[in-house]
Hints:
- With 397 residues, the protein is mainly beta.
- The protein has a single domain, classed as Neuraminidase, CATH 2.120.10.
- It is 13% helix and 42% strand.
- A four-stranded antiparallel sheet has the order 1-24-23-22, with no helix packed on it. It has a four-stranded antiparallel sheet with strand order 2-3-4-5, with no helix packed on it. It has a four-stranded antiparallel sheet with strand order 6-7-8-9, with no helix packed on it.
- The longest helix has 20 residues.
- 42% of the residues are buried.
Amino acid sequence: MKKATKIILTPIRKNILFCCLLHLQFFALGQVKVIQKQNIFPMQSRHVHSSSIVELPNGDLLSCWFQGSGERKANDVKIMGSRLKKGTKKWEEPFMMSDTPGFPDCNPVLFLNQRKELFLFWIVIKSNKWEESILKYKKSIVHNSEGPPNWSWQDIILLRPGEKFQKRTKSKFEQLPERGLGWAEYAPKYEKMIVEAAGDKNKRQSGWMTRTRPLQLESGRIILPLYSDGFNFSLMAISDDQGKNWRSSEPIVGYGNVQPSLIEKKNGDIVAYMRDNGDKPMRILKSVSLDKGESWSNVSDTDIQNPGSSLHTLRHPSGDWIMVNNNLEMGRNILNLNRSKDEGKTWNFILEIEKSRYKNDSFSYPTLIVTKQGQIHLSYSLQSKQQKTIVHAIISL
């Protein structure tokens, strides 16, 4: 047997090794960068928000958002969109994707299923109240030409959470940890009110809203994340026939866990990361499903700072998990990219996408996708000095 060679590091060799390692570290970090960023349309004064983006089979990018003189209280709000043709650098002039005359249309989500059918999910607001929202969707099988897709089907998604919804809501509240001094007086009244509302058939069947991209499992199951401003928590719409029929999961019960973004682990478990609409500290909230989205664990805090603002996640083909969010407790003037190499056990900041020294500037409501070329694309709302637009950015990972 040969003896192992003993390597002696002199001070000079140690310095050389340290410099090489440092160089490799900076080289690795340098691979994560924004390689392109542009406004989809010029900055303007009308309210534009909550964008979504998808890559079509022919390589085109399609984005959408809601636009009008306000949000739920503005009856002129409609869903607008734009297309970036493959090989071009300029987005098309915005076009209308959907409009319900006399009602606000909000929170659009684009999704391409395994059959290459394009879906547009969104909500129509009744009575100018979020909790009266109607969940709608369109489908297109012809979507590669210029302008808006050719929609072949449109319908309402009616969910019918049964009597178990109330029982599950009550039992989950009982399992949640104490909220501290600030909740000692009012939390029981809050919980009682929510549990009573869960027993109202009309309330539990309406007001479920979209925000983030669905997750499609290898089996074909589509899981559409939804949330309610009435109940201030979330649930899933589940389809096992490529989006023809929908039913509800059990609720993800917590104190203000809304706008879930889904990501699947290698073992099939599904993690929902959610915006915190509850009390401080402002952290991203998490719940896990061990049964393909049917039921969900107790909601828990992560250690990731995030104000009352939407976030988005995805699993990169490399296996890394990617998250874009506002790494702040207040404000939306920073937008960061974070990465996990251990399926969400730990997260590390890797890229600053946007930062403004003006606290009133806002970069928010991002949507992430990975293209066939492996690039990360995202769209998000930008607001500065009362001017607004939707931004498209490309990130090399």
